[in-house]
Amino acid sequence: MRSKVSFALLGVILASGLTACSSSDDNNTEFSSSGYIQFYNGSANSAVTTMRGTEETQVLASASYGDVTSMIQTETGNTEIEFYRTDSDDQEVILETRDIDLRNGEKTLVMLTGDFDTPTFNEYRFERKELEDHFRLFAVSVVTDQSSYDLYMSDSGAPFSEANLLATVNYENFEEMTYWAPDEDEEFNEGTYTIYLTEPGSTDVIFESNTVSFQFATEYVLVIRNSSGAIQNGIEIDLVLNSSTVSNLDDVNASAQYRLYNSLDDHDIEFTLEGNEDTDPMQVNSNAKTDFQDIEFGDYRLSATSTSDSTLTFNNRLVTLNQGESKAILIYQGANDKLTSLSFDESTQPQVYDKQVVAANLVSDFVDVDLYFVRKDETIESAEYLISSIDFGEAKSVTLPSDFYELVAVFDDNEDTQILLDRTQLLGFDEQANYIITIEESLDSPTGYKISLLY
């Protein structure tokens, strides 16, 4: 199970009368004197999107795909709100400006959906209520092909045959769900449940959550959305609360994927990734990577050997692949030239406007390597983007706007002397792909080191 919790990028709230609600506000019972607004980003090819009030340019908060801002408590009445992104030149691109009527005791959830080139901003409203030991549940789909889904829930531990059909959830159609076993209160009982999705009218389950704890007496919004990033062919569920918290639910039966890069210059590698069953070995050439390989989720044993030198080998490295996860595996020579590996998760965010780039230092001669991303009008001293102090055998990430960058790898010794390991020409980070950068030894480079860009 992977139950991810992500946090929106909360902006500075400058306007008087605006207050960000924390997770403790999920049990707040005094709603009648204020209005509430929150923004959820449900556009699968979007950039980080910021919401602000136009009066005195009051920045409220930002959200990436599948994320939500804090809920803002505010005075009631009409408020003009702008939504914008920032481009590669640090210029604002206005996506939408609209008057929003913030009403007493009501929450307005603004949801970005559809293609980010022609975005749709929907407003969904509901009255906040005093709740005790109960919760309310709303549901909406933002899946890009506009599919509908039958939504089922069951008490935790119960099979699908005992699940209860709540509704058919349609694209951009925001509905409140009705509890199947109400007591004197008609709302859902706090507790643990399992969530299922099927195609409309079908009993074939296409999504099953693990146990979900609904522990707050509050309103939950269930959002069905596309997977993104390295894995793009699945669906996920976000549970949005009245705070900056999104609980992300993966299908417990979803597969995973991986790709493997062989950084060695003069050795092809044969490797196996074995779970409970034997698998056929695969081969990857020197300085080459595999395509993404689909695989069942689980814990695996990675073993690898040079095809030309049997002493260059390792066995039984643990690699865990969770549901809906994509992992990169790098093969390289470590201390004393022994064969070793490094693995890390690849980003689940869209790679259209913003690129989450992972860089790995595979050079045992140098620790704390700095990697600069230098645009055409910059030097390493003025470069805005940098990954600093990448240790040997370590991977770090940075988020960049789509643009052209010269990559410069530098090591600072103890005497403040900078050693240039390698630099590239201007390279375009403009593919909708997950980029990996490796700093590695090279037989062909004048410095003995090179930078490789993989995607």
TrEMBL record:
Source superkingdom: Bacteria
Official protein name in the record: DUF4397 domain-containing protein
PROSITE patterns, alphabetized: PROKAR_LIPOPROTEIN (PS51257)
Organism: Aliiglaciecola lipolytica E3
Secretion signal, residue range per the UniProt entry: 1-20
Keyword line: Signal
